[in-house]
Write a structure and sequence with these properties.
alpha/beta, Cobalt-precorrin-4 Transmethylase, domain 1, Methyltransferase, Cobalt-precorrin-4 Transmethylase, Domain 2, 12 strands, disordered C terminus
């Protein structure tokens, strides 16, 4: 039997047109696809017709498949000589539990490869016509998670609270009030711009422009149900959004 292989791939933020050619090829060749909850249906529709599809999605503070079980399935299928695609939303190297799954494969002598994807922060910042970095404003940008295995995640709030800082918060809807409180405790301006982008790059994308003072209340009123990316320190620019640009090209 030929040795199997596991490819860890990023499906991007959801728009099929933002899928990389390498991931598209992998979708057409994989024998087994273990996919996350946030991978869009349009992208899953591109899978090889005979591929075995396994939903191994996780949800913050919600029902999730145990990480140990996901790792065991990857190894099991690869040991059968199959091409296994571990499909994650966004980019697999950002908040994707990649190291744990790579380690499981290495321990079992299973060959692996990583196929990068467009992360949600890139798609969301394009949607609001902004840049993650700007000369004279910020010399760095932080990618943060709103929660970790222990609950709401702590960060260097004193640094983040400084004027001009920019951060992209993944999985930040439920931690909005926590983030607001920590920022204000460390001296952040109540008027600090905050933008939340739901379903970045998708047809049902929505943008909420608010401030640190009003973030929890405005977010609750928006009733966002899809995946959302929160930008601390950025407001939408008055420019064409990604959706507008696509419409002009149509």
């Amino acid at each position: 039997m030929c040795p199997g292989v596991v490819a860890f791939a990023g499906s991007g933020p959801g728009d099929v047109d933002l899928l990389t050619l390498k991931v598209l090829k992998a979708l057409g060749e994989a024998d087994v696809i273990l996919f996350d909850r946030l991978v869009s249906k349009d992208i899953m529709a591109l899978a090889h017709e005979g591929a075995l599809l396994e939903d191994v999605g996780k949800e913050g503070f919600g029902p999730s498949m145990a990480q140990e079980e996901i790792c065991a399935r990857l190894v099991h299928h690869a040991k059968r000589g199959l091409k296994v695609l571990r499909l994650k939303s966004g980019d697999p190297t950002i908040f994707g539990r990649l190291d744990e799954e790579l380690s499981a494969c290495e321990a079992a002598d299973v060959d692996t490869q990583i196929l990068p994807g467009i992360t949600a922060a890139s798609a969301a910042v394009a949607a609001i016509g902004q840049s993650l970095t700007q000369r004279g404003r910020n010399t760095s940008v932080r990618f943060l998670t709103g929660h970790d295995m222990k609950g709401f995640a702590d960060h260097d709030w004193a640094q983040l609270a400084r004027r001009g800082e920019v951060a992209a918060v993944y999985m930040g809807k439920k931690s909005a009030r926590f983030v607001q409180g920590r920022m204000l405790m460390h001296g952040a301006d109540l008027a600090t711009p905050v933008t939340v982008v739901e379903n970045a790059s998708r047809a049902d994308q929505r943008v909420l422009a608010t401030t640190l003072e009003h973030l929890p209340a405005d977010l609750a009123a928006a009733h966002f149900s899809g995946p959302a990316l929160t930008f601390l320190g950025l407001a939408p620019r008055q420019a064409a959004t990604l959706t507008d640009f696509q419409m002009e090209l149509a």
